[in-house]
Amino acid sequence: MVKDKLAYMAQKEVFEDGDEGGYDLTHPIRKDTRSCFSEDLLLFITVLLLDDSEYRQLKRQGKLPRVETVLQIDVAKILKRLIEVRVAQYPTTADEDQKLLADVGDDTTSRKAMAVQVRLGEKTILEECRDVLDVYV
């Protein structure tokens, strides 16, 4: 059933099989908002969580579920786990990145410094989004 759901979401342009780009996260507008998560990501997870009968009914109608204004707890749990997995994939912690930047000093134009700044920015967004999820989970 998961393969069918993925194919249906690809047909509806919510998911692209083999998409290396994934879904973007952004800085939340406020700490208690789900604004850091794209509608497509929330829709993707919502469809995967549908039981088979709900999914078949939506598919027959050619529709997708409505994404709730308030983040559903099951969706929030999955998002939180995805963030934890992504953070664990980095070779350094945010504190280690801060130290690396301090060691570089004034030479913030070096490739290494720029790479660490980008990585630290990504980690900051992930942490902010995780903090948003703490309101729900």
Automatic annotation (TrEMBL):
Residues 34-126 form the Rubisco LSMT substrate-binding domain. It comes from the Eukaryota. It holds the Pfam family Rubis-subs-bind. This is Ribosomal lysine N-methyltransferase 4. It comes from Cryomyces antarcticus. The gene is RMS1_1.
